[in-house]
Amino acid sequence: MYINDDVKYIGVNDKQIDLFESLYPAPNGMAYNSYVVLDEKIAVMDTMDRFFIDEWYEKLEMALNGRKPDYLIVHHMEPDHSAGIKYFADKYPDAVIVSNKQSFPMMKGFFGDDFADRRIEVADGSELSLGKYTLKFVTAPMVHWPEVIMTYVPEMKLVFSADAFGKFGTLDVEDNWVDEARRYFFSIVGKFGVQTAKLLGKIEGLPIETICSLHGPVLKENISYYVSLYKTWANYDYEEDGICICYCSVYGHTKAAVEKLADNLKKEGRKVSIYDLARSDVFTVLADAFKYSHLLLASPTYYGEPFPFMGSFIQRLKERTYKKRKVYLVENGSWMPNAANRMKVALDGLDIELCEKVSTIRGAATEDITIEW
Fold first, then answer.
1. DSSP E strand stretches across 131-280
2. pTM check: above 0.70
């Protein structure tokens, strides 16, 4: 991947991974990005996941072309980016490790060494000159770990953005950036919207022409569009006026009812997505729940509670501070429907507009479900 003459890409595509962080499905793999800034002094931007250190080192040596690096900039201590720090330090004993002061205790924990004799601690606004290029550091606490920093290079109008603006998928797979970046954001970063919004406030005024994330492609066009999307996500605003319908169904009656509702809404010109929570990737569903302005939750009563997949989904919503949406409830119960009452309890505390009207089905729906938009 070409960035410019003085910034070389030395990342790796992981095509073997099935679950990123042992939790999030990665059907198109994952990219672990690392970069080298070549100047009078050389800065390496992050290392690599432990399974790809050898491949990364070969790329690093090619980029260095016989030179030695002066600095290793550590933006984020999560092991998919930091596993090679000790390896790098041993290979290049004269190089200095540069990071937020919170990173070094983490290094001690991972590697048994905090590099006290060869490190530079940077804070918000700190600068490091490489020659013709200046590295300006921006702290990004809880986006999505407390030690995270970003690096802005004003002479290039380029930002190394850590995990921000990242996405699922390897770099050789053509997919929809927005969909996979949204799923990545609300899976991993979504709980920290307030912190992300503060970060965007720090970088919003900077002239930016290139974003180099730790995951996903280098962004060189429509930068204002990507920043605007991130601002929408960080503020928990919806992208589109539409509805995400999430249901559980044991014998198909709840499914039939909400599918008929979805068809009716589509005929009205509404945008609709619909998911069976027992058979869908919960993190894809979460991304759509945040995408749209409305959410409908439909569940049979099971042991006096919502069906287990519904309870789990609501917990995921709460973990990510779901808010600013109108939410409808549909319950089913042949003799004692109680799913809606329990869903209300589970949703308590969220900043949502919960529709007072609950649609109750007793076995099979004899009338169409209707909602007030």
1. 134-139, 149-153, 158-160, 210-212, 240-247, 271-276
2. yes
